[in-house]
Amino acid sequence: MPKKKKKKKSWKRVRALQRERQIRQQRAQEAYQIQREREAERKPRKWPKGKIVFGCCLIVLMFGAYGAWQHYNSQLPPSIGGSTNNPAPTGSAPNFSLRDINGTQFSLNQFSGKVIAIHFMAVGCGGQIDSINDNQLKQLKSLCNTHCGNNPVTIVSVAVATCQNSELARIRTDYGITWVLGNDYHFEDGTTPIVEAYSNYPIRDGSILLIDKAFNIAQVYTEKMTATALATEINRLLEA
């Protein structure tokens, strides 16, 4: 009997020692994990190399896209007018001087006694124009085929081209322009005196303004026009 009791006590002692060892190991692991976490907090976080390369590429792409967007916008035609609160056309037309793309200087009032159609057209770098001007130039060409030379009618296209490479000569060739075409933009000081002179009227890019034989403003068209509609109004002004 004493031997059996001694054996039981020995077994309990072994189990207690194992339990203590497991607790010590667990506490050591917990302490090690806490130490690792504290060290990680003190160290600066390092990005994986792949993420760094991806981030750099993304930044380059963003700057590239922004630069391309700026370049694209810089090529677009400049704005002309755009106000919708201007008064209806009345009174004498403001006179102006314009040098055409051949270098010939003229004044608008030298055409007094004729019906004059002034076409305002913004031109971007490389000769870009909005669709309204594509329409207006084609319709003005058709109108000029029937009215220019045969009737006291004059057409003037006033371009606003802020780039040296706006290729007005190519536009003249592409659309068969036989009337006066010149640039209102002054590169020396960045002004547009003709547009400014007519800023009291509802002009914008693509507008066509009609002046009667008495040199008074008769109509301002800001939408796409047809040669037929323009001819009808011009014939009315010729008969007045």
Task: Sum up the structure in keywords.
single chain, 240 residues, alpha/beta, Glutaredoxin, 2 domains, 5-stranded mixed β-sheet, two-stranded antiparallel ribbon
Structure description:
This protein is of the alpha/beta class and 240 residues long. The protein has two domains: 2-75; 97-239, Glutaredoxin, CATH 3.40.30.10. Helices cover 46% and strands 15% of the residues. The protein has six helices and seven strands; from the N terminus they run H-H-E-E-E-H-E-H-E-H-E-E-H. It has helices at 2-42, 49-75, 131-147, 168-174, 193-197, 227-239; strands spanning 97-99, 105-107, 115-123, 153-161, 180-183, 208-211, 217-221. The chain has a five-stranded mixed beta sheet with strand order 5-4-3-6-7. A two-stranded antiparallel ribbon has the order 1-2. A hairpin with a 5-residue loop joins strand 1 and strand 2. Helix 3 (131-147) crosses helix 6. The longest helix is centred in the first third of the chain and has 41 residues, at 2-42.
Tell me the major beta sheet: 5 strands, mixed
CATH H-tier superfamily of the largest domain: Glutaredoxin
CATH arch. level architecture of the largest domain: 3-Layer(aba) Sandwich
Tell me the radius of gyration: 40 Å
How far is it from the N-terminal to the C-terminal residue, by CA?
143 Å
Summarize the structure.
By secondary structure, the chain is an alpha/beta fold.
How are the secondary structure elements laid out?
Blueprint: H1 2-42, H2 49-75, E1 97-99, E2 105-107, E3 115-123, H3 131-147, E4 153-161, H4 168-174, E5 180-183, H5 193-197, E6 208-211, E7 217-221, H6 227-239
Parallel strand pairs: 3-4, 4-5
Antiparallel strand pairs: 1-2, 3-6, 6-7
